[in-house]
Amino acid sequence: MKKTPAAPGTFFDQPLAFVDLETSGATAHHDRITEVGIVTVDPDGTVEEWSSLVNPGQRIPPFIEALTGISNAMVEDAPPFELVAAEVQKRLEGRLFIAHNVRFDYGFLKNEFARLAFPFRPKMLCTAKLSRALFPQHRRHNLDSLIERHGLICTARHRALGDAQVLWQFAQIIRRDCDPAQLAASIGTQLKTPSVPPQLDPAVLDDIPETPGVYLFYDAKNTPLYVGKSVGLRSRVMSHFAGDHASGKEMRISMQLAQIEWIETAGELGALLTEARLVKELLPVHNRMLRRAGELCAFRWTPGAVTCKPPELVRAADLDPQRLAETFGTFRSKKKALEALEAIAAEHGLCPILLGLEKGTPRTVNAASGKARPCFAFQLKKCRGACCGEESIAAHNIRLLGALTCLRMRAWPYKGLTGFRESRPGPAGEPVTDMHLFDHWCYLGTVRSEEELRERLESRLEPVFDLDTYKILARVLDQKKHGLQIVPLGRSTARQLALELDQAA
Predict the structure, then answer these.
(1) For the residues of 182-225, what is the DSSP string, one character each?
(2) Phi–psi pair at 251, nearest 5 degrees
(3) Residues pairing with 328 in the sheet
(4) CA atoms within 13 A on the CB side of 196
(5) d(Cα 185, Cα 417) in Å, to the nearest integer?
């Protein structure tokens, strides 16, 4: 145990605890603590350091041994956590819990204390988030980057006390060098306590990870209330409660919410696809846009030199994904689609009769007068007269094609089945990877292994076109840095592959 006085003044005007843990793995429910390091700082400037090895009661994998230097032999005679729990609790009680990626350290301690039936709900501050807020010009904010960037001294990297000492040094650096108002605002943002819904167990919020994925809200009767997605699940869920009084919708959700579930994904595309699927399956009360799948529609039209056939309004479910070059627009309802076509007609001087917006037959002759019968827009000089011979059908169709070009849906840019692989680092640095399977914009599912891929392809998948899924993938592919690895899976379509598998069988 080491005790030394600090320089006058402290980082916060309250008791602090800078904490770091070493563990046998990255999963708080399964893996266990192997070392605890705590640096406490009192308002009077006193700094005290403490650390202890901990016997995890399970084998430490070779990878973790190599990373931390803590071997199975070293912890063999160390006390189990239940014998150091009282000391840890005493050093943390009443203090602001500060750690780098604080949810990780907190999660392990929460689970260890829960096994002993000890309550543990400290106020928390994350130095990684603090670094991102104070130094947004830098890309990396892991502990190694902070050590190099700020010239911090680490006597034992990847050992609990050594890393905890680095956090205290970082705190002193930003107290000295950062603008006090900016520092106070950044800390205040993290420490702001949301109002947890009255029917929700606050403990469930502790387990929500800060990863990409989808979250699901249910009421006390297990009725789906809302499905949302985010690249940072916990922050997004907590934001619902921080603003529940600013929005009527948020208030209604907060008052009904009794249960939260979540699904982690490897990245944003997986979260978007999962959200779209679950909203259609569960029909949550407070989701609006993605629920209205039955009304989605588009125009189908094949331009010809002399054809008078107007654009055909088709439901999204009836679209042929292999004929998207003949398909225009994505509309939430028939009314929205017709309003858009009327606006196009008015802007480009197109004929409402040829567009199917007004009853009539082009170039018909009134028997009494012997004159062609124009549309009403021609009489107002808003149509160039394709309806009555003043403009050729071919010229009208060329102008219509030009007006519709901006709404034309995209042809499938790949050959047959295609996988879109996205990855992110897992809690211990291991990759978490999803491969999303598509055939001509039709989503066939997501797999995480070669075995899952083989099983999915052998399941005789029937591609079903979904307009929301098309828009999701098209929008992601338009991003300059979408982070996807595109994997060709063969020139066959899913339907052809199913036939080939049947023939082989």
Answers:
(1) HHHHHHHHHHPPP---TTS-THHHHT--SSSEEEEEE-TT--EE
(2) -65, -45
(3) 299, 408
(4) 12
(5) 50
- Kindly report, residue by residue over 241-279, the tens digit of the pLDDT: 865 445 567 778 888 899 999 999 999 999 999 999 999
Dihedral sign from CA coordinates of 53, 56, 59, 62: negative
Fold of 203-291: GIY-YIG endonuclease (3.40.1440)
Query: In the block, which residue shows the tokens 């996988």?
Result: 419
The stretches of 5-140 forming alpha helices (DSSP H) are 62-68, 72-75, 81-92, 102-115, 127-134
Global pTM reads 0.65
Q: Where are the alpha helices (DSSP H) in 267-392?
A: 268-282, 334-348, 376-379
Please answer whether residues 319 and 298 qualify as being in contact, where contact means their C-beta atoms are separated by less than 8 angstroms: yes
Please count the CA atoms within 13 angstroms of the CA of 462 that sit on its side-chain side. Answer: 0
Cα–Cα distance for residue pair 415/322, rounded to 1 Å: 12
Phi, psi dihedral angles at 47 (to 5 degrees):
-115, 130
SS3 98: strand
Render pLDDT for 182-236 as a digit per residue (tens, 0 to 9): 898 899 888 876 677 878 887 788 788 889 999 999 999 999 999 999 999 998 9
Give ranges for CATH 3.40.1440.10 in the chain: 203-291
Query: How many Cα atoms within 13 Å fall on the side-chain side of residue 233?
Result: 27
Q: Which tokens is 494 given?
A: 């899913």
CATH class in words for 2-191: alpha beta
**Which 8-state DSSP code applies to residue 408?**
B
Looking at the DSSP assignment, which residues form a beta bridge with residue 418?
438, 488
Spatial contact of 190 and 129, defined as CB atoms under 8 Å apart? yes
pLDDT single digits (tens) 383-405:
999 888 888 888 999 999 999 99
Q: Which amino acid is at 370?
A: G
For residue 290, give every residue at least 6 positions away whose Cβ sits within 8 Å of its Cβ, in sequence order, or none.
Answer: 275, 276, 279, 280, 468
**Four-CA torsion 142, 147, 150, 155, nearest 10 degrees:** 150
Measured N-to-C along each axis, helices 81-92 and 102-115 cross at an angle, to the nearest 10 degrees, of: 120
Please identify which residue in the block is written with the tokens 């014998």.
83
Q: Exposed, middle or buried: residue 211 (CB in 10 Å: 0-12, 13-18, 19+)?
A: buried
Which helix (H) or strand (E) segment holds residue 29: the answer is none
Tokens 């598998």 correspond to what residue?
A: 501
Q: Are 493 and 440 in contact (CB under 8 A)?
A: yes
Distance of CA 399 to the CA centre of its chain: 41
pLDDT at residue 119, as a whole number:
85
CA–CA separation, 121 and 306 (whole Å): 75
Q: Which of these, 83, 70, 93, lies nearest to 115 by C-alpha position?
A: 83
For 310-367, where are the E strands, in sequence order?
312-315, 327-331
Which residues make beta-bridge pairs with 436? 420, 446
Which residue ranges does the chain devote to CATH 3.30.420.10? 2-191
> Does an H or E element contain 436, and which?
strand 431-439
